[in-house]
Amino acid sequence: MKFLVTGGTGFIGARVVVNLWERNIPVVVADLDLNIAWTKQIALLKHREDPVKLAEIQQQINQTSFVNLDVSNRKQVNEVFCKFPDITHVIHLAYLMSAEVEADQSRGAAVNIQGMINMFDMTVDHRLVRLVFASSETIYGANHSAYGDADYAVKEDDFCSLDDHFYTYGVMKMLNEFTAQKYIKNKGVSIAAMRPPVVYGDGRMRGSVLWACEFATNPALGRPVKLPFSKEARDCWIYVDDVAEQFVRLSLKPKLDHFAYNNGGHSVTAEELMQTVQHIVPDTKYEFDESVPRTALIDRCDSTRLEREIGFIPRSLQEGVKAQIEEARCRQLQVSY
């Protein structure tokens, strides 16, 4: 068994790689802009108090191959699989986020559409055991009101029309999922899609949702927070390490009952979110932008299907926020020394 993780030194990708190291699973880490030091740091910080595990992780790091890869370039993608013919599983996370897509539609289509098709073709050509890729809650549109009841948790089979969309990014994810199911039906391959909501944690470096890092990391380091929406804005939040665990478990399960899965998470208002932070860091200073009533995302999603499939329930919001705060502080201490 050997995994390829594309976007493998990004925000979620680095956590997936660390998760595979912890399982002693060989991995090839591919990214357009490799941040190897960052990925190593996550692993070493996480196991800093366990010398035995730290030594095991270091051995895994030493055996890992890191490659520069533009997933939109079919020749480059094929070369990776030819260089590492023992790749059996792929977790595909190389994608341009919504702001990047809107800024450059051509590049967005190249990476998000052609890049995804390249990975589907590799799944067929190299007879992979499974490809799992990151879809998104944005496929459900930009407003929870499309589903009626405000307390309704959106399920995987719920329909969203194009009229209810705001992000090109979300529509691209819809096309990815549609195309994937064509490959499953016509080629007999194993492909699954995961639909994360707002993924929070320390270490986001780019994208339009940097606030999903700053809301807890800033207070951890004694800095104020300003969230770019109302205190009443409601979103679904999940901790980044839990998302990584979900991706790996779904990849490893021998047989899947479904194609698409909601990652789930905790549905809270922005005010409830910051109260959670303040419970851990009492001197937290924060404010909201009341001129923006809500984010262009759904409010809550149902994760029953995934929980049954992989037997994993994400940690509580308070546990996740506490983990992020502790990591941010440990990282600052490491940098200081």
From TrEMBL:
<keyword id="KW-0521">NADP</keyword>
<feature type="domain" description="NAD-dependent epimerase/dehydratase">
    <location>
        <begin position="4"/>
        <end position="254"/>
    </location>
</feature>
<dbReference type="Pfam" id="PF01370">
    <property type="entry name" value="Epimerase"/>
</dbReference>
<dbReference type="InterPro" id="IPR036291">
    <property type="entry name" value="NAD(P)-bd_dom_sf"/>
</dbReference>
<protein>
    <submittedName>
        <fullName>NAD(P)-dependent oxidoreductase</fullName>
    </submittedName>
</protein>
<keyword id="KW-0119">Carbohydrate metabolism</keyword>
<dbReference type="InterPro" id="IPR001509">
    <property type="entry name" value="Epimerase_deHydtase"/>
</dbReference>
